[in-house]
Amino acid sequence: MKIVILSRSSKIYSTARLIQAAQARGHEVVAIDHTKCYVSMEKGNPSIHFLGQEIKGVNAIIPRIGASVTFYGTAVVRQFEMQRIFSANESQAITRSRDKLRSLQLLSRAGLGIPKTIFADGAKNAEEMIHMLGGPPLIIKLLEGTQGIGVILAETEQGAISTIEAFMGKEIYILVQEFIKEANGADIRAFDVDGKVVGAMKRKGKEGEFRSNLHRGGTGTVIKLSVEEELSAIRAAKVLGLRVAGVDMIRSSRGPMILEVNSSPGLKGIEQATGVDIATKIIEFVELNAPLKIVDDVVGY
Predict the structure, then answer these.
(1) Distance CA 45, CA 29 (A)
(2) Are 16 and 70 within one domain?
């Protein structure tokens, strides 16, 4: 099988692990920088080109699309889909997961636990938003933030008002969420592949840090999920249409609450914490779903 990993670099840990796992199972695999691809459209002939050559003979793609290039990256994924090439995550699901507001709306409608969240247009609503959430402390999030960037803890009402007014004064959309005190600066990352949780870890922020992201100095340790937590993680990925996903949740007195569902979850932290070969789990999933027959011969990259 020929597999293309859409990634900015083959040296990124997650990409390198996927390449290693695919090669170990006898597949031809290459990492292609999706930002350097271009798509061509004409009657009955959607094509993708990279470094001056058309990409052909591909059985499957594994998108590793960064948040900063979601629009262009998903356009490239969509072009592969136009060629009926299997994608580990579909373009629409990636786009859906990157929209934090839409994701929360879908999770809420599906009856999944989420922190109470307010979205409004206009700084004049700041006090009302704060009161609807029961007062400070509160979490204020940028709609576009990743890896803990753009997430602020407002510990006082005046601090929350000032922060909300500052963002809205610059016409920057934000979400305001209740602060779950009992989470104690920790969250859970459940890694879902094809409707199954294949690994889970507890992430704890460093001393004095309420954000638990490993990129911000947090630590990860293996954890056993409760039945409710496992089912919540599986349902959250399914609601957003993701077949490979990192589901972030926190434990609360009201049960598990979903914070975010990541369409390009990193492998390093979860593999090191759990000892599970998750890269191989992803390749096995691709093997089960990607068609082996290719009409066109391989031309190159």
Answers:
(1) 24
(2) yes
